């Protein structure tokens, strides 16, 4: 069902992602795959649907659980890994015989417990045993790190050397890393940083874009057709909500579930979307100790596109004083890194139409 708001796990439920599906299918033997896209554009659905379709074995680490934390410690990450490995061992009990030899791992019945204290388990050791098990089975183990930019907040431990070790030595492991921001590639994986353990590593990159107007209209029409509903206002809905598949899906779901009241469905979708966008924006400002007023002013200024000069002028009008050019550029670059802004030709645009409606957000 196209209007089911939960992440999809079946290829037939993905809409207009044929090229991305094909690329991911053909890249599953690659040691590192990076999937970039805004939140709610379907990264999770793409991965799970393809991996389920190909009957792949995978561990899915959802880093969104840490988005409200100012920082993450080793215990947070290792317990997340422990939880997902225990999901795997329920169906693959022979994996326990590989894991029990690792220092810092305790096997209890049909589950494992990872130590995070003085004799903490080393992630590279876990990767090695997962690889050996997968090799024995003649398969590839996929380790998915969803919304991996949250791991930039990991303190006291660097996971990149373990991923680099696996990349170079463990041929039956493959990492699929997703992010809603470009900084997952540049600030987390640091692929172009000469001091990064992953510097220069070849990888496959898939970019999931929001739907175009044409695709959005087809999505709405086909979703309603599934339900036996003729819906004439698809273009209007795109003009109001934009092309984020998550918002369009939620609109269709609310419209059907609550009596086909279009205005009510629009208002409820906007309320839902702005709540999520406001939370993400507040986490962004808190994470860097950033001045919320400045960033909201830029978003307001760029609702219909803006230039660098427009941004500088709006910030100076806000504060009633001259602002250094470097400060203006830093503010713009932060918004670009976190995918609140995108640069198209010489104009800056907000990445989500509804982002422009959170100008009164309170964090």
Q: What does the model show?
A:
InterPro entries: ATPase_dom, P-loop_NTPase, WH-like_DNA-bd_sf, WH_DNA-bd_sf, WHD_MCM_arc. Pfam families: ATPase_2 (PF01637), WHD_MCM (PF21100). GO terms for molecular function: ATP binding. This is Archaeal ATPase (AAA+ superfamily). Residues 292-348 form the MCM C-terminal domain. This protein has three domains: 11-208, P-loop containing nucleotide triphosphate hydrolases (Rossmann fold), CATH 3.40.50; 213-260, Orthogonal Bundle (Helicase, Ruva Protein, domain 3), CATH 1.10.8.60; 290-357, Arc Repressor Mutant, subunit A (Orthogonal Bundle), CATH 1.10.10. 47% of the residues lie in helices and 13% in strands. The chain has helices at 18-26, 43-53, 74-91, 96-99, 123-137, 160-169, 183-189, 213-226, 234-241, 245-257, 262-287, 292-301, 308-319, 325-337, and strands at 32-37, 57-62, 105-108, 111-114, 141-146, 173-179, 204-208, 341-344, 347-350. It contains 14 helices and nine strands. A hairpin with a 2-residue loop joins strand 3 and strand 4 (111-114). It has a five-stranded parallel beta sheet with strand order 2-5-6-1-7, with helices on both faces. A two-stranded antiparallel sheet has the order 3-4. Strands 8-9 form a two-stranded antiparallel sheet. The protein is α/β, with parallel strands linked by helices and 363 residues long. Helix 5 (123-137) runs parallel beside helix 6 and helix 13 crosses helix 14. The mean pLDDT is 95.
